[in-house]
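Curious: why this fold?
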Amino acid sequence: MYEEYWKLSEKPFENTPDPRFLYSSPRHEEALSRMLYVIKEHKGAGMLTGEYGSGKTLLSRVLLEELSSDQYQTAIIFNPRLPSLELIKEIIYQLGGNTLSIMPKTDLLHALNEILYKNKKEDKNTVIVIDEAQAIPSDSGFEELRLLLNFQLNENFLLTLILLGQPELKEKINSLPQLRQRLAVRYHLKALSHFETKEYVNHRLEVVDAKKGIFQEEAFHEIYRYSAGIPRRINNICDLALLVGCGKGLEGIDKTTIIEVAQDLEETSVDMEERTGVTTHG
């Protein structure tokens, strides 16, 4: 709607996991590096946590893009609330296997085992990503995932399991020592800093061929103050700001516009000192 007004090739602040829009902050780079380490070194399992909207799902898409199809076969589970048998069926289905509507668990595990060994013979590594893993409804669901790690040879695992989730996933895993001990790497993705928030906005604008200066310098302070550096909240604020600015015929997005749209979105401003730990007055 506003793309033509601002001379953009497409909307820059959609909340979709498009790898083109990934802003590689040091934290995102570190998270990606650790997850790739787990996968490429056949470490068995890794966990990436972060606040809601911090960019975990987008990062997982970038991670999967890094894995060439001739070396890796991947499955990504978006609905971890599935019953344990249905979860295994979905994994088998995404890995190219066939399952019957009524099939004993032992047969399902045999089918998965065949896929894993087939991939191994073809020099392919199997990667299973569980998104929003904190939504797994019971300890038994986590136990099923742990048991998947029993598919291994003497020298390495036959699959790599990557768990993505919100901070409460850490608490759940900590209460399950038998699974926690299988995690070779754990990393928590923190919110962007004030500087990174500005860089994030500018990066997404560059992707859509935006002209310079659409967001005035004073606007970035307010974007950070109302978003707390959470990418999804930044996107919501900036997207609505571009729409409002278009409707009002503005030449650029100023501080007042950001405050207006943030309040419309019912975002709460964040104390800069609280976020940074730096005192700005005597």
Confidence is low (pLDDT under 50) at residues 272-282. The radius of gyration is 22 Å. DSSP finds 13 helices and five strands in the chain. Residues 3-16+194-276 form a domain with the Helicase, Ruva Protein; domain 3 fold (CATH 1.10.8.60).
